[in-house]
Amino acid sequence: MTASGAVLAPPARPRSGASSLPQILLAVVCGGYATGAAFGWGSEKLALIMGDFGLSAAALAAAVSCVLYARRHHSRFRPAWLLFAASSAMAGIGNGVWGWYEVVLEAPVPSPSVADFCFLLFAPPAIVGLLVLAKRPVTRAGWVCLGLDAWLIGGSLLTLSWSLALAHTTHFQGRTVAQGALSLAYPLLDIVLVSMVLALHFRRSSANRSAINTAIAALALTVLCDALFTSPLLREHYRSGQILDAGWFAGSMLLAYAPWVAARSGADTPGEDFTRATRRSAVPPGSRPIAGSLAALTPYLAAAVCTLGILLNVLDGRRIDHVVLFTGCTVVLALVVRQGIMLVDNITLTRELAQKENHFRSLVQGSSDVIMIAAPTGILRYVSPAASGVYGRDAEDLVGSELASLIHPEDLGRVVHEVRRFLAADPEAEPTTRIECRFRAGGGRPGGEQWLNVESTVNRHEGGLIFNSRDVTERVRLQAQLQHNASHDALTDLPNRALFTERVSQAVSGRRSSDHDTAVLYIDLDGFKQVNDTIGHQAGDELLIQAARRLAESVRAGDIAARLGGDEFAALIMGDGSRDLTSREFRVHEIADRLRIRLSEPYRIDGQDVRVAASIGVAFAEPGVTPATLMRNADLAMYRAKQAGKGRVEMYAPQMQADVVRRSELATKLRTALHDGEFALLHQPVVELSSGRITAVAAQARWRSAQGILFTPAEFLRVGERGRPATEEGERTAELGRWQLEEAVEQAARRHRAGHPVSVAVRLSARRLLDRKLPPRSIETLLARHGLPSGALLLELSDSDPRIPLDELERRLAALRRLGVRIALDGFGSGYAAISALRRLPIDVLRLDRGLVDGVVESARLHKITAGLLRIAGDLGLQSVADGVDRPEQVTALRAMGCTHGQGMAFSGPLDEHRLRRALTIGAYPVPGLLPESREMVLSSAVPAARRAGPPREAGGAGRLGELPRRLGASEVPAGPDAISHPPLRSNSETSVPPT
């Protein structure tokens, strides 16, 4: 066997034999009996007892053993063991009767006697039992052949025995007919029994082989002793207790042990399925062919024995006896008949075999799979014709070659391991296995010689293997492509987020986890959305492809570049083992800056240059950091780079995570405050600058802290800091906006019913007004539910985003104006879209941005701009409201420019409901810069009441509702929750109140 062919050699299996103690005990008992018989047992009396009653006890023990086994084990061999029990019982009774005469009566045994009839009845049950143990023929011809085989053996033995001894026995020489018949009956029955034993040896069932072999050995030993006893020379000198009795004793003890051999080996346990009980045992190679050859030679051996008997008569010069002649003729006739049956049977089997062979040959040769049979040496003995189409090599060229030489060297070890494991496994538990490897293809295939991916189903075959193989190269290629697609971005072919995360995990937790200078770079393309919006998404895709190519070319060998989604990329920079913080930061910052410069270069798309910048965040794999934390840190650093002006590299610092935690905590506090009712609504009066009369109130939300101090929620509503929409915070903002609108309408309705019909102004962003969660008729429904006249509601649009569709906003505002709701344009003068909104939208009131109001006195330029804007409002017939009027000189200047209304600390800060009603009862505030007569008239009625109402005290006394620091302007932050993207300016003396 070659070294490569050793692959197919099955590993040796240890034999799990049962304990040998029963065999040892059996050998000791039989040996002890034989020793006693050889030395005469010490006395003639004891010899008679052991020779008669000892044999009787052994035979009865065999009978009892077979009966007990038959009662405990229900199988198809149960009748055989019962028949063997009956046969042994007859032998036991016969020996007992013999002992009765010799030992008890001390008289010679008469001939014939009852013992002789019992001994004669020993053979028939044993013969029938052997027939039960034999493999049953399945056809009628098989039964005929079984009978002929038995007669061939029996007739041949009869011819030989008659020629040697039985012919002399027929001369009775003064004996009676019964004595003569008895003398012939013993050898004839023994011949029949020997014939059945020999026939059964070649036709025994494959089940319970050890038990059947033991039973055959026991009967064969008994028949041999009977044959020796039948000879006249030995019979004349036979005495009970002699060595011949040891053979009968051993035969009975073997028969007693025979049925339990199967039970001890586990082949015939109770309740075992017959199919499993008849499972073929493993036999040494070559044993079955020898047994089959002997079975085929049995008829010829029988004829030879018969011929030998006739030749003995001729050589002795005797006339051929009629019995010998008749028996010989019948044996020859049986042989001819048997051969004729076998010839016809062989012709039929040959035809069937040819048909089946043709059938299977057509299946094998017509199959698209390659079928190969490998010998135990690993040499291919058969290869189907499909090999020429699959492997590009003729089947004849493959036959005789070693299988191992055709398998890829890298796959050979795995194939050897699987084949050996398969051969060592239980054939019933694992009848087949699958092996996939690369197989050498010849030049007959398109593309020449190559390695093919081949999948083979492997089956056992006469110590070798059958391979049913098929070409799965395309499937393997498709699987590899699918796996590549699953781990790579479809547009840029860079690793995607899943694969990049896996590589980061390997770098952080693998063998290079000690390289603390390993870093992750998060990269975002600034201005990419404008590319999509201006020149189209196809151009944006081309830009991403070029950016990915630049990124892949710019990273070092061993580093990994990936696209995480959208315009976000990432790079994993492997460390070099350096522990110097300064050097590692310098090295990685240099790499990141080189990537930033490369990605910020112009992109040539559709004949034009397109520019985008790159913001990069860097985070290092510090000790104990997890892959998710490392990527999150790099993400935070990237957004800090975008906040700091974009197009830059930012290193991660722990403070960034602290800011995220703080924002998360603030969002949680906001959510809790909304659900627990911790928000309060204040109102700041809107005063007519010409008279000081209160014409409206502006609703503003405040958050009541745990200490009872009210704070504006603006700090907690700035959700646009990181440059991306914050859905959860946006929902909180919308929820606060809904609460503010409903609370303002409800309180305004109560004031109307109390006799204070003052309009309420609620700041609402245009984006919120167009939200689908705010149906068109929801405001009308709200006004009707609380009973507030529609003219008493003023909606202030606080959003100047140019991306808002003005057509849809115009339709929505027109519908609200038809209801009577008035519309104000907030922050006029601060956004480039204000003029466009003023031109298209139905506006009733213009609110000047406080950035203009703050510098209207000090700056001549702002003075002229504000005067121009107020002149536009006057020409359009719109009311004007100045926001953030905190100083008297601002009141005077604005009134001189034509501003009609003002709101600010020059008149009053935000008031709670109780103080607001007191101010509404007074109805006016003193206005600086009026004529003396008007001033006296206003002050006489307004100042005492205003002093009683009083502006909010300083922060040190801000313990009750509505009492705010004196310089904390009502318009420090936008009044509406949606006006968060334009934080207002503050006066220099303003003191900020930190949130809790």
Q: What does this entry look like structurally?
A:
- By secondary structure, the protein is of the alpha/beta class.
- Helix content is about 55%, strand content about 15%.
Question: How do the strands of the widest beta sheet line up side by side?
Answer: 13-14-16-17-18-19-20-21
Q: Structural class, judged by helices and strands?
A: alpha/beta
Overall mean pLDDT score?
Answer: 76
Residue ranges: pLDDT <50 for 5 or more in a row?
12-18, 170-182, 266-293, 719-728, 938-996
Radius of gyration: 57 Å
Distance N terminus to C terminus? 87 Å
Helix residue percentage:
40-55%
Biggest β-sheet strands, sense, barrel: 8 strands, mixed, barrel
- Assess the beta-strand content as a share of residues: 5-15%
> Quick one: overall form?
elongated
Helical stretch count?
34
Quantity of strands, as a count: 21
